[in-house]
Amino acid sequence: MPKSAAALPPSPAVLDVSPAAAVAATDPDFTPAYWDEACRHLAKRDRVLKKLIPRFGEARLKSRGDAFTTLARSIVGQQISVKAAQAVWDRFALAVGGAPSRLKPGNVQSLPVPQMREAGLSARKTEYLLDLARHFSDGSAQVKRWQQMDDEAIITELVSIRGIGRWTAEMFLIFHLMRPNVMPLDDLGLIKGISLNYFSGEPVSRAEAREVGEAWAPFRSVATWYIWRSLDPLPVEY
């Protein structure tokens, strides 16, 4: 149940810029090839995840939609719960028209602002979505280049778009590019999950969370996904 985020930089040795990463960007049901290996690694290195991972059976992180749709969903989900974000997204996608997993920037630009607000979007999120659509429509967003860039370079480029901060960029890294080693240390859901699962509910600092995550490398994204699931059975998707 992510709400805001920052991440540790990836290890160059595990940076996923393989053909599989490109498939993840286009196949709406793609599951990363590293998932099973990551689960084995995490179960060996971390006592909490050893018990947590089997609880969710064959559930996996999946790519949902294209780059534009993933970023749009991330903007919609800022600072609200997974359940609330899904409800707003469903109304917004219905208003835009077309497949909810692959919205077209031009259709978003054509949607009257009052209809966007009626879907439950704030005035600020409405502005952000329209600016995002403009970047994709005019070619400012160079999606094809992202596959060959490291995590920090992608974050730097994305945060130049209004409404996309580090959290939104990192959700994009996890859910669209499926980078394996992102740990959103400012994410409220992740911090809460670490608090409950590792510290008996006691408050947790970023430094303490970072220390827990050291055992998760090079698969911090996978561990984060399971910690989110421990708080909310509804899979987190963007």
Describe the structure in your own words.
The chain is mostly helical and 238 residues long. It is 54% helix and 0% strand. The protein is globular, with a radius of gyration of 17 Å. The chain starts with 18 loop residues before the first helix and ends in a 7-residue tail after the last helix. The model is unreliable at 1-22 (pLDDT under 50).
Computed CA radius of gyration, to the nearest angstrom: 17 Å
Q: State the order of secondary-structure elements, H for helix, E for strand.
A: HHHHHHHHHHHHHH
End-to-end Cα distance: 11 Å
Note the total helix count.
14
What does the secondary structure layout of this molecule look like, with pairings?
Blueprint (H helix, E strand, L loop, with lengths): L18 H6 L10 H11 L1 H6 L14 H10 L5 H15 L8 H6 L2 H6 L4 H15 L5 H4 L4 H8 L7 H10 L12 H11 L7 H9 L5 H12 L7
Helix pairs in contact: 4-8, 4-11, 10-11, 12-14
